[in-house]
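Students often ask why inverse folding is considered easier than folding. One informal answer: many sequences map to the same fold, so there is more than one right answer. In these notes we will look at a single instance of the problem. The structure comes first.
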């Protein structure tokens, strides 16, 4: 007769390691310097995978990006990507910055409310931001104050709705 199985004793799971602790020494130095350079905007340190990340208020994004570009240690002369993520109660905008001289990256994150998605444009800091901002405006309805041209980039002008949003019903989509 088989013995009845006993449940294994509950083992307390170890909390996952702090992502900042997993950064390399060079990445940690970049994060520490970013935190010091951006101290006026109450930054929150973190890590996005193996990249140093700083979260700041949306209202200060243009100033923060200017500092990241002009600071000699951060030297973020290139905007690699600007991504918008829909969390249904808010949008998160993620700026991937690159220092060509130092060969290091930095991620800047900010959030805007779902019902009033608006923040300052960074197209004056990096001209490449223009198309990224137009894409986020097309797909998610995020407005970038100060962007000289938020005309549709991916969608035709008469398109209604924002197909990047999770609430968008793709079954209602019709070709024109």
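Output (designed amino acids):
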């Amino acid at each position: 007769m088989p013995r009845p199985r006993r449940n294994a004793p509950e083992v307390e799971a170890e909390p996952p390691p702090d992502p900042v602790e997993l950064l390399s020494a060079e990445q940690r130095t970049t994060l520490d310097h970013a935190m010091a350079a951006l101290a006026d905007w109450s930054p929150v340190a973190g890590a996005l995978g193996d990249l140093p990340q700083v979260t700041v208020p949306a209202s200060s994004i243009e100033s923060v990006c200017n500092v990241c570009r002009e600071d000699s240690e951060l030297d973020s002369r290139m905007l690699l990507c600007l991504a918008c993520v829909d969390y249904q109660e808010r949008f998160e905008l993620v700026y991937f910055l690159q220092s060509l001289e130092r060969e290091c990256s930095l991620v800047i994150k900010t959030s805007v409310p779902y019902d009033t998605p608006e923040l300052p444009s960074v197209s004056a800091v990096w001209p490449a931001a223009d198309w990224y901002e137009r894409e986020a405006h097309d797909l998610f309805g995020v407005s970038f104050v100060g962007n000289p041209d938020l005309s549709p980039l991916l969608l035709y002008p008469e398109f209604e709705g924002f197909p990047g949003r999770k609430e968008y019903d793709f079954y209602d989509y019709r070709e024109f």
